[in-house]
Design goal:
A hairpin with a 4-residue loop joins strand 2 and strand 3. By secondary structure, the chain is mainly beta. Helices cover 3% and strands 42% of the residues. A 4-stranded antiparallel sheet has the order 1-2-3-4, with no helix packed on it.
């Protein structure tokens, strides 16, 4: 399916992987929650992964020992190892431990350290998306984002957002649609505050828009809303946060290219925006400016959305995906097509986390009990971490 036809108008920058993915621009890279550290004795026996984030053509993950690793396309320095070479197996980012969370985007990545510092690396598109005050400067090693006391981060094409320990939300980079949430549309090479609230609990940066959840379980979105992706019942953009319809009761949100999904505290999942590839859990290329329910389950525990593909945990350790399957990212053993129905990924009932890559032809990665890491979907640059590159994998493969 020509998935780039609707999204192509938003494509900016020169990241080559976007052109090779049928013109589809990258959306937010969604991360899974960091998990507790396993005993040191167990770490010595097997590589253990605590958190993973799938980027446009590369993947980054944090091990339980708080070391950070990336693999796949390194053309813009997004692997953070000081080079611009591709790697089809994990390479370490820097020589220090102490990393707690990573968020991979289109051609750059950002991560949080235990001391509250945020660091970014990779391609800088001219919007200030590395957050260090510079523009038009590729960095193949991490550079520190201005400010500090950050506790979580989410990355997108050319902008990023991070929550500080005081509950305030700060964003930087591209602001062409008002996705930084500061009331304007000027780009920012250093973090600017999104809105005035100081009780943000979670944030997800999408393509030209951003969504977040506050402590009272209300959900808010801002930026490009022309496809209904702000979830406020309208098809209009906003440079400041607007509340997603449905009141309180939201546990988390995940933003992609032209749609978003939210997990509610009652275990249901609801999605909104443009239904380009059945990723809203229904058929037909229609706009849904208010949340619509996906399926009938009430046992969902986590959800992650990439461009036109959504995956979620239910039960709480079975994994299901729906939407676009152009690179096998539904995990059903086939490549191609799409599905509005939730497709079970393999037979495992040990899943504890998932991250969907941000472009239409991308990878999906998940963590299972025992801290093992599995990826499937596109492997053109070795982003599945299997020690090989090329082709697609329609079922989960363990990262080498």
């Amino acid at each position: 399916m020509p998935i780039g036809s609707f999204n192509g108008r938003r494509a900016r920058g020169s990241a080559r992987r976007l052109k090779q993915a049928a013109g589809v621009p990258a959306a937010a890279a969604v991360t899974v929650a960091a998990l507790a550290v396993a005993p040191a004795a167990a770490q010595a026996q097997v590589i253990q992964w605590a958190q993973v984030s799938s980027g446009a053509a590369f993947t980054c993950a944090v091990q339980t020992g708080h070391t950070l690793w990336c693999w796949g396309d390194g053309y813009d320095g997004e692997l953070g190892d000081g080079s611009t070479a591709n790697h089809d197996s994990p390479v370490r980012v820097g020589g220090r431990a102490g990393w707690t969370e990573v968020a991979a985007g289109a051609a750059h990545a950002c991560a949080i350290r235990k001391d509250g510092g945020a660091w970014c690396w990779g391609g800088e598109s001219g919007f200030g998306d590395l957050g260090n005050g510079a523009v038009n400067g590729q960095r193949s090693r991490p550079v520190q984002v201005s400010g500090g006391d950050y506790r979580s981060v989410s990355g997108s094409n050319y902008d990023d957002c991070a929550i500080r320990t005081d509950g305030t939300l700060w964003c930087w980079g591209d602001n062409g649609f008002g996705q930084l949430g500061n009331g304007g549309t000027a780009n920012a090479a250093v973090p600017v505050q999104a809105g005035t609230a100081a009780d943000w609990s979670q944030v997800s940066a999408g393509l030209g828009f951003t969504c977040g959840v506050r402590a009272d379980h209300s959900a808010w979105c801002w930026g490009d809303g022309t496809d209904g992706q702000l979830g406020d019942g309208a098809q209009a953009s906003s440079p400041t946060p607007v509340q997603v319809t449905g009141g309180d009761g939201w546990a988390s949100v995940t933003a992609d290219a032209v749609s978003a999904c939210g997990l509610r505290t009652d275990g249901t999942i609801w999605c909104w925006g443009y239904n380009e590839s059945d990723q809203l859990g229904r058929t037909g290329r229609t706009v849904q400016p208010s949340p619509v329910r996906v399926g009938t389950r009430t046992s969902w525990t986590k959800v992650s959305a990439g461009t036109d593909t959504v995956c979620a945990l239910s039960g709480p350790t079975t994994l299901w995906c729906w939407g676009y399957n152009g690179s096998g990212q539904l995990g059903r053993g086939t490549v191609g097509g799409q599905s509005p129905d939730q497709v079970k990924v393999g037979t495992s009932t040990n899943w504890i986390g998932v991250s969907v890559g941000p472009i239409g032809l991308s990878a999906v990665c998940g963590i299972q009990r025992g801290w093992s890491l599995w990826c499937w979907g596109d492997n053109f640059y070795g982003e599945l971490g299997l020690g090989t590159s090329g082709g697609y994998q329609g079922t989960p493969q363990q990262v080498s």
